[in-house]
Amino acid sequence: MFNFLNKIFPKKFNDRKLAEETFCIIDTETTGLEVRSGDKIISFAGVKVKSFKLLDAIFDQLIDPERDVPSSSSKIHGIYQKDIVGKPKIREIEHDISNFISNCTIVGHNIQFDQDFVETIIPYSELALKFKLNPILDTFSLAISLFPDLESHELSDLCKTFKIKPEIRHTALGDSIMTANLFVILAREAQERGAKSVYDLIKIMNKSIEISKHLKKNKHY
Fold first, then answer.
1. Which CATH number do you get for residue 189?
2. Which of 69, 125, 64, 117 is nearest to 89 (CA)?
3. Which residue range forms the structural domain that includes residue 33?
4. Total domain count for the chain?
5. Longest dimension (CA), the chain
6. What pLDDT tens digit does each residue of the chain (221 aa) get?
7. What is the DSSP letter of 164?
8. Residues 164, 101: contact at Cβ < 8 Å?
9. How far apart are CA 172 and CA 119, in angstroms?
């Protein structure tokens, strides 16, 4: 009974120690950028990090968006209409994705984009609930807070800055792996500055709001 409740109500954020927590780094590919105009998810991927190391666990799935895939989008992520024929619909695999995420802290680069798609397309699903209950970290915001003077905080540029091995960009799995490696660097940096828990990372991340205003004004990214 208590194990079941623990799955529904994850432990408090300040109880999640950086050295002990398992982080699930996710990414999606979509038919376009406007979920409220009908764009859908066509690929979902995730990897996991624990003790500042990537684990072997991988989730990688193409998804039938139940609509056409614009050629303009295919040119970016390399997923074409023929690739998603016969693939499962998002509501058919959201339970599998939820199981993969489990009680982990969810991490992504510009994670709000992925969260908006999930919560708009399947709003009352188990997966949408994960984004309500699990801690969420955004590597874009963390990077701004920890390294505000960088010229760019875009994923490719950050990976070049920190000499992270490049993966195939604009694929859900490739971006998840690159984001995971970036997150390890950011989390270690935060730890060196005194962060001990997920809650501490969230506090650091939230500082990016004011920093971003300054960066936008000065056109640094």
1. 3.30.420.10
2. 64
3. 2-218
4. 1
5. 54
6. 334 444 444 556 778 999 999 999 999 999 999 999 999 999 999 999 999 999 999 999 999 999 999 999 999 999 999 999 999 999 999 999 999 999 999 999 999 999 999 999 999 999 999 999 999 999 999 999 999 999 999 999 999 999 999 888 789 999 999 999 999 999 999 999 999 999 999 999 999 877 766 555 554 33
7. P
8. no
9. 18
What tokens appear for 127 in the block?
Answer: 């997966």
User: Are the beta carbons of 116 and 109 closer than 8 angstroms?
Assistant: no
Burial class (CB in 10 A: 0-12, 13-18, 19+), 57: middle
Q: Is the pTM of this model over 0.85?
A: yes
CB burial of 154-168 (b: ≥16 within 10 Å; e: otherwise) equals ebeebbebbebeebe
Tokens of 147: 């390294």
CA-based end-to-end distance of the chain:
49
Short-list 79, 93, 51, CA closest to 180? 51
